[in-house]
Every structure is written in C-alpha cells, then in structure tokens.
Amino acid sequence: MKVSDLRSALELLRTMPGELVETDVEVDPAAELSGVYRYVGAGGTVQRPTKVDGPAMLFHNVKGHPGATVAIGVLGSRKRVAAYFGCDIRDVGKLLCRCAQNPIEPVVTGEAAACQEVVHYATDPDFDLRTLVLAPTNTPVDAGPYITLGMCYATHPDTGRSDVTIHRMCIQGRDELSIFLQPGSRHIGAMAERATELGFPLPISVSIGVDPAVAVTSCFEPPTTPLGFNELSIAGALRGEPVRLHPCLTIRENCIANAEYVIEGEIQPGVRVVEDQNSHTGYAMPEFPGYNGHASNECWLIKVKAVTHRKNPIMQTCIGPSGEHVSMAGIPTEASIYNMLEKAMPGKVANVYAHPAGGGKYMAVLQCRKTVATDEGKQRQAALLAFSAFTELKHVILVDEDVDIFDTNDVLWAMNTRFQGDRDIITIPGVRCHPLDPSAGPEYDPSILERGISCKTIFDCTVPFHLKKQFQRAKFLEVDPKCWLPDFEG
Ligand SMILES: [Mn+2]
C-alpha cells in the first residue's frame, strides 16, 4: 500500500489492527480533545496515566467546525512510522540516514493541487482563522489554539534555497498567527532575520496534514541539514520520487500540493508579539520535556493572506510531550548520530535509539559492537561523537550488541548487571544543551552558570572486553513458537 499523503497513511492504518480508533461523539477543540487523547495514546513524557504506543485517533465531530476532522497520534508510534516508510522498526533511523545522503529535490507542478480545492482570501470581510482553521488548544492554560504540525516553508532572500521546519504557531486574531522562532535558529528563523535586515516581509506557506515522510524529515537539524539543505529532498529520497509543490495564490512561495490545509502569509519584518496576548496565562503549550512551555514575548508575527484546504479537510495535530514528538524529533536524531558514527568508526555502533523518556532529544541508547581488544574504550568515544553530532543530547547509555535498545527493561537490565556507578559514569559538566530542561539552570545549582547549560553524562553499561565470556546470557533452546501458536507474532 503506497503512502503519499495523510489520507493514504490513514488508509494504511485502517489495515493494521488496533492502530486507529475513531469517534463521532462531539468534542471541544479547546482542551477537551487533547484531554481525551492523553488517555488514549499520547505516551511520551505526558502526565500518567497515558497509553504508550496507543492508537492514532480521528475526531469526526468537532464543536464549531462542521465537516472537518482532527487526526492525532498519526506518528505516535515507531511501529506506525516504520509502516509508512515500509521498513522494520529497528531500521527507521538508518533508513533516514541513507536518505539524507541521497536527497531528491522537490518539484513544482502546474497541475491543480488538492490543497486548493477550497480557497478563502483574507480580503473577504468574513475571513477568520479561528473558524477556518481547526486548531486545538491543548490544555486549559495554553496561550490559545495552536497549529502544532504546520510545515513552515520559506526561501532565503539571498540564496534562493528553501527550507521546511515545524514551529509552534498560535492563532492570535482573524488574520494573525504568532510563530516562535528560537533565537539563533539556523533555518526559517535565519531567513526571517535576513528579510528583516533587508526591510521586507518573508513569504511563508504553512502546509498541514501531509505525508508522514515530510513530517518526520522536516525535523532534521544541523549539522545533518545545514541552512540551505531543503529537508523535503530527504522525504523525496524516502519515497523514491520528488515531493510535489504548488505555487501559493497570494504570495511568492510554494506549498505542499497534497496537504489538507495551507496557510499563506508573510512574516512581518521586525514585529514581535506576545504569545499569550489573548489568554494572559503565562504559558504557551506543553513542550516535549513534559512541562508547560512559557509564553514568549518575542514571537514573530505572520499576517495571513489566504487559507486553502481540501474538501472536508483533516487537521493533523499532536500533543507536544507525546510519543508523536519522539517520532519526529527522535528518529532524525538517530539518523544524525548514526551518520556521524558510521563516518568516524564504521561498524562499531550497530544501532541508535533516541529514547522517548528524553522526548527524542535528551537521551540516546547506543548499541556497541566490541569484537577485538582494541574496541574497548571505543564505546565511550562513540558517546562523545554522539554528543557532538547532536548538541541537545544530555544522556548517553551504552550497551552491548546482545541488548535490545528498543526494550527499556533490557537496557535497565544491562545497567543493573554490567555497570558500577562509581566507575562507569562519565560526567562532562558545563556544556550548552537545551533550555527546556528545567534542571539546567543556576537556580538548580549555582555551578550552572546559565539556563540551558547541563552536565552531559555517559552511562557505560557495556561489558569490559576481557570479561565478555563471563557475561553470556542464559541461552534457551532455539524453537519456532508458531508450531504451538500459529498466530504468534514475535
Ligand atoms: Mn528545517
């Protein structure tokens, strides 16, 4: 079954038992919808109880938005992501790594685009983003309705190179969206800063509800995708054909032709707005580490010129701290770390897992291969390389090849039987990591000079090479369980 857009991805899910649930019961997009999905399948770092690897969900009856559907959790499990990409769950990171090395650039098509079946111009007096775009408010204290899975697409004013990145965007008024661009960001943010220097607005298209290949690859970051590397070319490589773009109607920019919704607008040069200007709660929305993000006073402003969408559009959304974020942030992280390790020490690290407990960014588990005596110590070198490949990484757990890195029980088993705290923990304090880690700041400990500075730590749970014989796991007789249970799936 070929996946090329959100609808074909949902069709694939319908063929997989237990991966998609649907409801026709009315739901309020303001806090209620996310409240429901928190129990059904959010996982990740979300408040417990929640369901890890629960199903994706469709809400067909959303208060105030007749005819529209909300899809949530589409990327919420590694199993689903692997199915969209047609690979084993253990190989998703490696597959993305290969695709990043063999990109296929997107193409602009002249054919009628599905995303423009219905068109609304901001010049129409009835135009209002709040009714046109079904954006949920995730918790009662959020700044407002958020577009959480908008593929922001813009072009650098100097180089003409385009970039796709996901940013949090809050609906602020009838034709106004705030967009949070991390200061010093090397993608869309750098383009907005350059356009501001030149004194003109930056055209931006926001495509929502797209092929999962686009959603995941848009989360690649430097050094794998430096400024000027269009991540849509990795999605193209994943599909073996270019992503199809279509010209927008009101701005000089393209959008993703088969998206469910497209918002066309311009980032206003030099204008900054308060993110919670309507709610005054002080919060933005829940972020991937599992805590409420603080509202920014420095959001950029997008003046919206048009909204286009399919007939009966499907709004795709996610919960910030959910397993879905892990798929999007974590899998490209794995690809970037694996890429770096394969270049520096080919064959010495078998696989990488960006663990959900770190939101896909803070923690990685490396499966190390020690085959000769001189491999001893290379596992720690691998950890250092992983830290340099991905600056936001805080904890690296090293295990041997006989440990299943995707099975947390097995990783913790290695920590319990192949690790001594006083000799196998390596700490590297005072390194810039990530500002959303609440323990990374001077109030936590005066030795931490600034917010976002952390102690990077290696937990070496590998067996010292010379002791390998003494650490053989108890072996069972090799059998085929299907002889006893024909439906058994390992
Ligand atoms: Mn980008």
How are the SSEs placed, and which strands pair?
Layout: H1 6-14, E1 20-23, H2 32-40, E2 56-59, E3 69-72, H3 78-85, H4 92-101, E4 107-108, E5 118-121, H5 129-132, E6 146-147, E7 150-155, E8 162-166, E9 169-173, E10 176-179, H6 188-198, E11 202-208, H7 212-217, H8 232-239, E12 244-247, E13 254-256, E14 261-273, E15 283-286, E16 292-294, E17 299-309, E18 314-317, H9 323-344, E19 349-354, E20 363-368, H10 378-389, E21 395-400, H11 408-417, H12 421-424, E22 425-432, E23 453-460
Parallel strand pairs: 1-2, 3-18, 4-12, 20-21, 21-23
Antiparallel strand pairs: 2-3, 5-17, 6-9, 7-8, 7-11, 9-10, 10-17, 11-14, 12-13, 14-17, 15-16, 19-20, 22-23
Helix pairs in contact: 4-8, 4-9, 9-10
Number of H- or I-type helical stretches: 12
Query: What name does the CATH topology of the largest domain carry?
Result: Pnp Oxidase, Chain A
Q: CATH class of the largest domain, anyone?
A: Mainly Beta
Count of strand segments: 23
- Shape descriptor: globular
Bound molecules: manganese (II) ion
Radius of gyration: 23 Å
How many domain regions? 2
Mean pLDDT: 96
Please give the share of residues in helix: 10-25%
Q: Specify the structural class.
A: alpha+beta
Strand content: 25-35%
Overall CATH architecture of the largest domain: Roll
Extract low-pLDDT stretches: none
Report how far the terminal alpha carbons are from each other. Answer: 23 Å
Structure in words:
With 490 residues, the chain is of the alpha+beta class. It has helices spanning 6-14, 32-40, 78-85, 92-101, 129-132, 188-198, 212-217, 232-239, 323-344, 378-389, 408-417, 421-424, and strands at residues 20-23, 56-59, 69-72, 107-108, 118-121, 146-147, 150-155, 162-166, 169-173, 176-179, 202-208, 244-247, 254-256, 261-273, 283-286, 292-294, 299-309, 314-317, 349-354, 363-368, 395-400, 425-432, 453-460. Strands 5, 6, 7, 8, 9, 10, 11, 14 and 17 form a 9-stranded antiparallel β-sheet that branches. A hairpin with an 8-residue loop joins strand 19 and strand 20 (363-368). The longest helix is centred in the last third of the chain and has 22 residues, at 323-344. The relative contact order is 0.13. The site of manganese (II) ion (MN) has 5 residues, from strand 8.
